[in-house]
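Progress note, sequence design subtask.
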C-alpha cells in the first residue's frame, strides 16, 4: 500500500476556495512533485512565467508540479501520468464545484490499472463560511461534499463573526462528525494538513486517534447520517463479508462512505475495509498488538440509513 502513489481528491462548492488552495500547491516551493488534475487550466489563474512547458492538456510548473486538464477520461489521464518520466510524490484531483466526489473516488477502486499503482489518500472539502448555511439549504451537492470528506477546510473565516463561525462548524459537524477540520482565510492551511494524511486508511488514523470512530450523537434535521458501530470481540468473516456485500449493493446509492477495522475470528491481522457507494475495497493490514483489545469499529455515512437495522445486522455477524 505504501508503494502506491497517494491521491488527494479536492472538492468544495462553487467559490469556496479550492482554486486558491490549488494555486498554493502549484506555486509554493515545497520541494515535492505533485501531479494536479483539474477541469480547466484557465480557471487556476497561474501566471504564464510559472509554466515550464505544456502540451494540449499537461502543464509542467517550475516547482516540478504537473498540471493536467480533464478534457478526456480521468482514467486515461492518470495512466498517462504514471508513464511520464520521474516519480510523483502525489496526485491531486480537483472536482468541479457542482460535482459529487464519489465517481472520482471510485476510479481508484474500480480500475485495475489505476488501483494497482495509486491509492486514495483523502477527500478534502473546502467550505465557504460566509455562504454555507444558504448552500446547505439550496444545494444538495454542498452537503454531499461535506459528508464525503476526510478533511474539511472552513474557509473565509474573516467574513464571519466568531458566533457565526461556531455555528458553521456545528452545521459541518451535523453532516460529518468524523472529518478533521481546519479554519482558514484564503485557504492558508499548511499543506501537510491536507496532503499525505492517509486519512482514507483507518489503520493509521486509529493509531493516532483511537477515539476517531467513537459514536457521536448529533441532533440535526439533515437526512445525511453518520452511524458508528463498535462490536467487542471477533466477527465471523463468513457472515460479515456476504452481508456487507449485499448491503452495499442494495443501499449503495444512499451510502456516501463506509469504512472500518474488523477483528476476524482466528485472524492475527486487522482487516480494513472502505467503500464508496456500491464499491468496496479491503485487505488485511498489520497484526493486532498484544496490548490491543480486539474489536470491530466501522462507520457508515449517507442518506436514509437506518441505525437499528445496521446494528442488528452487524451484531448477527459476531463470531
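Output:
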Amino acid at each position: 500500500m505504501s508503494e502506491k502513489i497517494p491521491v488527494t481528491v479536492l472538492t468544495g462548492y462553487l467559490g469556496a476556495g479550492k482554486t486558491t488552495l490549488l494555486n498554493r500547491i502549484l506555486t509554493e516551493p515545497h520541494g515535492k512533485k505533485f501531479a494536479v488534475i483539474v477541469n480547466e487550466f484557465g480557471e487556476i489563474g497561474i501566471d504564464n512565467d510559472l509554466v515550464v512547458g505544456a502540451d494540449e492538456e499537461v502543464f509542467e510548473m517550475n516547482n516540478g508540479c504537473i498540471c493536467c486538464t480533464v478534457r478526456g477520461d480521468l482514467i486515461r489521464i492518470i495512466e498517462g501520468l504514471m508513464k511520464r518520466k520521474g516519480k510523483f510524490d502525489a496526485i491531486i484531483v480537483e472536482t468541479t464545484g457542482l460535482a459529487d466526489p464519489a465517481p472520482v473516488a471510485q476510479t481508484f477502486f474500480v480500475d485495475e490499472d489505476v488501483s494497482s499503482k495509486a491509492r486514495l489518500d483523502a477527500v478534502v472539502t473546502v467550505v465557504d463560511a460566509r455562504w454555507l448555511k444558504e448552500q446547505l439549504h439550496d444545494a444538495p451537492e454542498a452537503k454531499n461534499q461535506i459528508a464525503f470528506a476526510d478533511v474539511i477546510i472552513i474557509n473565509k473565516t474573516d467574513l464571519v463573526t466568531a458566533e457565526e463561525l461556531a455555528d458553521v462548524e456545528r452545521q459541518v459537524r451535523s453532516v460529518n462528525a468524523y472529518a478533521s477540520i481546519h479554519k482558514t482565510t484564503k485557504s492558508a492551511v499548511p499543506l501537510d494538513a491536507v496532503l499525505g494524511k492517509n486519512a482514507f486508511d483507518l489503520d493509521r488514523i486509529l493509531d493516532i486517534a483511537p477515539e476517531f470512530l467513537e459514536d457521536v450523537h448529533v441532533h440535526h434535521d439533515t437526512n445525511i447520517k453518520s452511524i458508528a458501530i463498535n462490536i467487542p470481540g471477533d466477527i465471523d468473516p463468513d457472515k460479515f463479508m456476504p452481508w456487507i456485500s449485499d448491503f452495499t449493493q442494495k443501499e449503495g446509492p444512499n451510502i456516501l462512505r463506509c469504512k472500518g477495522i474488523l477483528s476476524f475470528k482466528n485472524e492475527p491481522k486487522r482487516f480494513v475495509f472502505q467503500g464508496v457507494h456500491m464499491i468496496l475495497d479491503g485487505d488485511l493490514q498489520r497484526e493486532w498488538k498484544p496490548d490491543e483489545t480486539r474489536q470491530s469499529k466501522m462507520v457508515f455515512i449517507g442518506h436514509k440509513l437506518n441505525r437499528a437495522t445496521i446494528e442488528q445486522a452487524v451484531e448477527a455477524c459476531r463470531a
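Confidence is low (pLDDT under 50) at residues 41-57, 215-221. Work on this subtask will continue into the next period as scheduled.
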